[in-house]
Predict the structure.
Amino acid sequence: MNVLFQRMIRAAKLDVNLYEEVEHDKSSLNQAMIVVVLSSIAAGIGAMSIRDNINLIAVVIAALIGWAIWAFLIYLIGVKLLPTSETKSDVGELMRTIGFASSPGVIRILGIIPGLFYAVSFIAQIWMLITMVIAVRQALDYKSTGRAILVCIFGWFIQAALLTFLLR
């Protein structure tokens, strides 16, 4: 567990070497998925402060579905629609890197403190977007951070629109 938490901290600190490390470490997929689950649980717990009758399981599942949609879109956009000549990646590499990019999402648990939910959620979303850009740049071997930003933001907006439609 200590290795997992050290990796999460490095991911949140935007350590490029961490993203390269997990990209090439096939055994880190389980750790990456644990990070996604922890981040989603933190989102659910944090959301409990905004409504008394919130369904924790539904929020956690929605967060997991949102991540999965975003991950799929990043793969589709980054590998299939906007690859560069250097882009060499497979689903496993991408899942490992963007799984760890969810590390800052664990701060969403602080949203349970009355009055902090929206601020903490906003900070977590921006921070995760930044870590996602780094993860995508490293996993897809992009030379340009701009291309990674484009892939992540485009995927994020589509994911947000889909979730909004699905959760109505």
